Amino acid sequence: MAGLLEGHVAAVTGGGSGIGQGICQAYAREGARVIVLDSNPAGAEETVGLVTAAGGRASSMRLDVTDRQACKAVAAEIARGGNISILVNNAGINRRNPITGDPIAVAKDWDDILSINLDGMFNVTHAFLDQLRATKGRVVNIGSIQSFVHVSWPNSAAYTTSKHGVLGFTRALAAELGKDGVRVNAIGPGMIETKINAEARAKNPDMVANVMRHTPLNRPGKPEDIAGPAVFLASDMSAYVTGCIVMADGGFRTV
Ligand code: NAP
C-alpha cells in the first residue's frame, strides 16, 4: 500500500531532535523524501541515520533559521534537486526567566526566542514560498498550548508571545495563499518530553504535576504523538483544512 506522502519532498526545520525528529521519521515512513534542516548538524545527521536505517530517504543541511540569507541559499540549493511540497516550521527554543529579572538577560531572552521561533518561521517560509506555490504545498507550523494560554508554565512571556505569533502567522498565511492551493496549518503540542524542557521537568516536578492535573489523558506526550497530526496536515487527508491549529495536548485546552 502506498504511503500517505508518496511523491512529496518535505523540509523540516529543527529536525535533528525531539518533535522534529519524530516528524521526519513519520514522513519518511509515509513515503516522503525528507530534508532535515537544523543548526545542530550532529542532531540532523542522527535523524538521517534513523530514517535511512528504517529504509526511508533523508538528507540534511545545516541551517540557522535566524539567518535570512542562509535560508534563501538553502532553498535555492534544494530547488536544484526539486521543489519541496511540505514545509514544517518546527525549530524553536524556550527559556523560562521572569520578565522582572536582570534587564540585560531578559532582553536577550526576548531577542533570541522571538528571532528563532517567529522571525525564523518567516525567514524559512518566505525563502520556500515560490517552491510551495509551484507544488501547491503544505505548511505545518509548530505552535503550542501557549498559542492560547499562559498557565502552568510561568516566566515565559517571550515564548508565549512567539507561539501566539505562530498562530497568527498560520491564519494570515492560510488566508493569503489559499488561492494558490497552498494550505497552512499548525499543531499545538502540550507537554512533550524532549530536550527543550528536560531541565525544567527535572528541576520542577511540581510544574509537571500541575500540567498533568490539567491533562485529561494524564501523561506527558512523546514526539510520536505529534507525528500523526503532522502527517495528517501534510497529506491529502486534510485537503479541505487550512488556517487551523490541531491541538495535540492530551486535552489540556479542553479543561
Ligand atoms: P528540541 O528537542 O530542543 O528540538 C529543537 C531543535 O531545533 C533542535 O535540534 C535545535 O538544535 C533546533 N534549533 C534550535 N535553534 C535553531 C535555529 N536557530 N535554527 C535551526 N534549528 C534550531 O525541542 P522540541 O520540543 O522538539 O521543540 C520543537 C518545537 O516544538 C519547538 O518549536 C517548540 O517550541 C515546540 N513545542 C514543544 C513542546 C514540548 O513540550 N516539547 C510543546 C509545545 C511546542 P539544538 O540541538 O542545537 O538545540
Tertiary shape: globular
Q: What is the end-to-end distance?
A: 39 Å
Ligand roster? NADP nicotinamide-adenine-dinucleotide phosphate
> Remind me, CATH topology?
Rossmann fold
- Placed side by side, the strands forming the largest sheet appear as 3-2-1-4-5-6-7
Count the helices. How many? 9
Task: Draw up the topology in text.
Layout lengths: L8 E5 L4 H12 L3 E6 L2 H13 L3 E6 L5 H13 L5 E4 L13 H25 L1 H7 L2 E5 L14 H21 L5 E7 L8 H6 L1 H9 L9 H12 L10 E4 L7
Parallel strand pairs: 1-2, 1-4, 2-3, 4-5, 5-6, 6-7
Helix pairs in contact: 1-2, 1-9, 3-4, 4-6
Bound molecules: NADP nicotinamide-adenine-dinucleotide phosphate.
Question: Key features?
Answer:
alpha/beta, 255 residues, Rossmann fold, 7-stranded parallel sheet, binds NADP nicotinamide-adenine-dinucleotide phosphate
Structure, briefly:
This protein is 46% helix and 15% strand. It has 255 residues and is an alpha/beta fold. The chain has one domain: 3-Layer(aba) Sandwich (Rossmann fold), CATH 3.40.50.
Description:
The protein is of the alpha/beta class. The protein has one domain: Rossmann fold (3-Layer(aba) Sandwich). The chain is 46% helix and 15% strand. The chain is built from nine helices and seven strands, in the order E-H-E-H-E-H-E-H-H-E-H-E-H-H-H-E. It has a seven-stranded parallel β-sheet with strand order 3-2-1-4-5-6-7, sandwiched between helices. Helix 3 packs parallel to helix 4 and helix 4 packs parallel to helix 6. The site of NADP nicotinamide-adenine-dinucleotide phosphate (NAP) has 31 residues, from helix 1 and helix 4. NADP nicotinamide-adenine-dinucleotide phosphate binds next to helix 1 and helix 4.
